[in-house]
Design brief:
It is a single chain. By secondary structure, the chain is an alpha/beta fold. Helix content is about 30%, strand content about 15%. It has a single domain, classed as Peroxisomal Thiolase, Chain A, domain 1 (3-Layer(aba) Sandwich), CATH 3.40.47.10. Strands 3-2-4-7-1-8-11-10-9 form a 9-stranded mixed β-sheet, sandwiched between helices. A two-stranded antiparallel ribbon has the order 5-6.
Length: about 400
């Protein structure tokens, strides 16, 4: 994938406000995110000739609605499934479109309004009936056996993880507490209120062993990233490594490879397999070269699996690893430095993408990771990007 050896870059990022149940429409969110990203890249709307929408209706906007309403005339368009997990996929596709000559400047937009569509797991949510299809829902739901929302699968997988490795599930508190501390330094974080250990443990279980603050809040808003050929322009962040989502019997959305959940085997990735993952091989680096990490965290256990499957600690070691500030701003691997989905906003990972770009530019003020030159974005599903400062 020669086109991912730094030949394409994120030239601009922008976002709307992140709010809960705001009066603004999803189109207003998208317009704000697009305009701020274009201004950041020094571009006009007429210069955009590619468009990829990460969330379509009914949660978000379809690509044709975005183009027609916001005055774009792209010659290359695409759109992913109306769920999370596709941030890396969208950016990889944008890079491929540029490499193939199908576009030169691709606006990648994730815009959604969740507070209008009802709670996940309830019959008035438009995705309710997906969980009853033959192989279950898109987030691990199995409605026919009573697992009506994503947290059921996340809780069961974490419970299995703790039993397999004989770990105390209360150690998980380090992740939401650390990310809330990061959010306190982030102006647009939805969850800005201080949270103590007492607050965390006083919160009710949603599904044991996961508590309220182990779950990301409802998110409304939009993020846009503009992908272009690399021009060595100030502010560009190069895409130097990538890999896509995994699928198959050994993959479960809320578990690492080989945990033993559902149809999974019980064979975890070896250290050699972890260090040899394509995202590292394509960028020509190892885990030790990463300065700042963005990990998909719709539920608090998910970053544990990223830390293990991408080589920051061994299998079964992540709960111990995240203690004592190791994922904090001055830690071994600063993670989700704007608060992540658990505290900044549930934006399907796009908030972390924007944050990584800004970290590599040195624009993060009080939460800036000193000397950050290389960042990794990754999920438990295996998709990943390596971004490098210009």
């Amino acid at each position: 994938m020669a086109f991912l050896d730094g030949r394409t870059a994120i030239a601009g990022v922008g976002a709307s406000r992140f709010e809960r149940r705001p009066q603004a429409s999803v189109l207003q969110f998208a317009a704000t995110a697009l305009d701020t990203a274009l201004a950041d890249a020094g571009l006009e709307r007429g210069q955009v000739d590619g468009l990829i929408s990460q969330v379509g209706s009914p949660r978000g906007l379809d690509y044709d609605t975005i183009a027609e309403t916001l005055g774009l005339t792209p010659r290359y368009c695409s759109q992913t499934w109306a769920h999370g997990r596709f941030a890396a996929t969208v950016l990889i596709e944008a890079a491929m479109a540029i490499h193939a000559g199908l576009a030169t400047r691709v606006a990648c937009i994730m815009a959604m309004k969740n507070s209008d569509i009802g709670r996940i797991g309830e019959a008035n949510n438009p995705f309710f009936h997906e969980q009853f299809r033959e192989n279950g829902g898109p987030h691990g739901e199995q409605g026919h056996i009573g697992m009506a929302s994503p947290i059921a699968g996340a809780a069961m997988a974490f419970d299995l993880y703790c039993r397999r490795y004989a770990k105390d599930p209360d150690l998980l508190a380090a992740i939401p507490l650390t990310l809330r501390a990061h959010a306190r330094l982030t102006d647009d974080a939805v969850m800005h209120k201080p949270m103590s250990r007492e607050d965390y443990f006083a919160a009710p279980y949603m599904i044991e062993p996961l508590r309220l603050f182990d779950c990301s809040p409802v998110g409304d808003g939009a993020v846009c990233a503009i992908v272009t050929a690399r021009n060595d322009r100030a502010g560009e962040v190069a895409i130097t490594g990538a890999q896509g989502l995994r699928a198959g019997r050994d993959t479960f959305i809320f578990a690492p490879v080989g945990l033993g959940f559902g149809q999974q085997s019980t064979t975890r990735l070896t250290p050699e397999q972890v260090r040899g993952q394509h995202v590292y091989a394509s960028a020509g680096v190892a885990p030790e070269a990463i300065d700042v990490l963005g990990a998909y965290d719709s539920f608090a256990p998910l970053p544990l699996y990223v830390l293990e499957d991408f080589g920051f600690c061994g299998a079964g070691e992540a709960l111990d690893f995240v203690q004592d500030g190791r994922i904090g701003l001055n830690g071994a691997i600063p993670m989700n430095t704007s608060g992540g989905q658990l505290s900044q906003a549930q934006m399907n990972g796009w908030g972390q993408i924007r944050e990584l770009v800004q970290q590599l530019r040195g624009q993060c003020g009080a939460r800036q990771v000193r000397g950050a030159k290389r960042a990794l974005w990754a999920t438990a599903g295996g998709d990943a990007l390596i971004l490098e400062a210009n």
